[in-house]
Amino acid sequence: LGIPPDLSQELEAELARGQNEPLRPGYVRLSLPFCTTLEEADYVVAALADIAASAWALLPQYNCSNKTGEWRHTSVFKRFPERRWLTELGWPTAANHTSGAPTSVHKPSLQQQLQGGKSILQTALEDCAHPRHVGGLLEGSIEDPFPRHLRWFALPSEATAFAKGRPVVAAVAVLRPLKYPVAAAEEPVAATAPHQRQAEPPD
């Protein structure tokens, strides 16, 4: 992650104190299966480009738990709609078994999904300057705020200020992930049919 030794020691000491989990650095690894089509790969790359360029505008819609480091949307920050319990498990019976052909479900194309994501980001950019809810747990609700010089991420309030055209000056830790050189691709060799190959001159 490009963390210098002195910064690494400070981060480790601060994390050992507890209640400062957002400071824990991490990374995301993206893997594409061997069966990925070119269309799917182009879709993933285009989506990543949109996220890298505009996803900062979504920050005012999220809060972060200083105890766990989890970022959650403000609508579900204290609720867990995806959590399921064993008592909710239902068993199939003859009464609720339906026969017949399965109903078809409309699945949007990759381009439709990409356009849908662009619309969400565009709306976020327009609403960012006037958020209905600015994430507060990282700014005012925590009892023991972490040192600003160790923070390596932006806050929702900084995203709002940036959207309003205000200067954003934050003393944050700068991480410089290592960049590995990309080997130059070899020049492709055009394949020729046997009848197109020139006969070699006789010795």
From TrEMBL:
This is Cysteine desulfurase. It comes from Eutreptiella gymnastica.
